[in-house]
Amino acid sequence: YFIIFILFSLRHIEKIVGFGPNYDFITGLFNVDMFHYTGLASCFILLIIINNKKIQTFLNHRILIFIGKISYGIYLMHWLIVLHVKEKWAKWTPYFPNENLQFIGMLLIVLLLTFISATFIYYCIEKPFINFGRKKYKWHFWLKEDHLKL
């Protein structure tokens, strides 16, 4: 776990400390950048999940599966919503007594709007296109089989 943490942190550590010209030479020689370390850390996480039944059981929870289904919508919408809420936030600040509650309020609003919009995107856009693609694939597959019979 410590190695995974370090691999994910190297990009940020390098910005703060800098690893020097020798490191730059070696990574240039092998054409490696900081995002390769993130990928390697992700690979280690997947290996841990594959070999641990308790983690697999936890990840099969229906709420996490739902979040996985709407994750593309979350990816698409989260930054737009953050920007919009930040732009309009000055109107809402008088309703919060201190900065900590303002932050919590902003966070909750962003999360709520993100999940609502991502759910809408999934059910109104993604799922119909997924179903359309499945129907088209079955039709295309049927044509190929029929063509082979001739």
Compact description:
With 150 residues, the protein is mainly α. It has helices at residues 2-17, 20-29, 34-50, 53-59, 62-69, 71-88, 99-149.
Strand content: under 5%
State the share of residues found in helices, binned by percent. Answer: over 70%
Q: List low-pLDDT spans.
A: none
Number of strands: 0
Q: What is the average per-residue confidence, as pLDDT, rounded to a whole number?
A: 88
General description of the model:
- This protein is mainly alpha-helical and 150 residues long.
- 85% of the residues lie in helices and 0% in strands.
- It has seven helices and no strands.
- The chain has helices spanning 2-17, 20-29, 34-50, 53-59, 62-69, 71-88, 99-149.
- Helix 1 packs antiparallel against helix 3 (34-50) and helix 6 packs antiparallel against helix 7.
- The chain is extended and about 50 Å long.
Secondary structure: elements and pairs:
Elements (H helix, E strand, L loop, with lengths): L1 H16 L2 H10 L4 H17 L2 H7 L2 H8 L1 H18 L10 H51 L1
Helix pairs in contact: 1-3, 6-7
Descriptive keywords:
150 residues; mainly alpha; extended
